[in-house]
Design goal:
Strand content: 15-25%
Largest sheet: 4 strands, mixed
Helix content: 10-25%
Number of helices: 2
Shape: elongated
Strand order of the largest sheet: 1-2-4-3
Distance between the termini: 38 Å
């Protein structure tokens, strides 16, 4: 399987708009990730699960990113890796679900 094939599988899961590869800048201050690397932004826990399954099947390194604080190399891939890297940014998963009349809450990773 080429490096492009696993990334192509992620587009239908999250929508092409939420799969950042190619020449687009999607991480500052460095330019895009090299071929075989990308940023995928799932919108639900189910999408995140399917993305993780596809990455594991394709033998990709997964780096999770939540806050995107722009701190140097905090959760962004840097250096050399022995295979492709997929960065999963969970900021789209930004819902709070109130339970039991608001006495409990389920907070998804991108919630503020």
């Amino acid at each position: 399987m080429t490096d492009d094939a696993p990334l192509a599988r992620l587009g239908p899961i999250v929508g092409r708009r939420h799969l950042l590869t190619g020449q687009r800048r999607h991480r500052a201050p460095r330019p895009r990730l090299p071929l075989g690397r990308g940023v995928v932004r799932p919108g639900t826990p189910q999408e995140q699960w399917r993305v993780l399954q596809a990455c594991v099947e394709a033998d990709k390194i997964v780096i999770m990113q939540v806050a995107n604080t722009r701190l140097p190399d905090g959760s962004a891939p840097s250096g050399r890796y022995d295979r492709g890297v997929v960065q999963i940014n969970t900021r789209r998963m930004n819902k709070l679900e109130l339970l039991h009349d608001g006495t409990q809450v389920i907070s998804l990773p991108g919630a503020r």
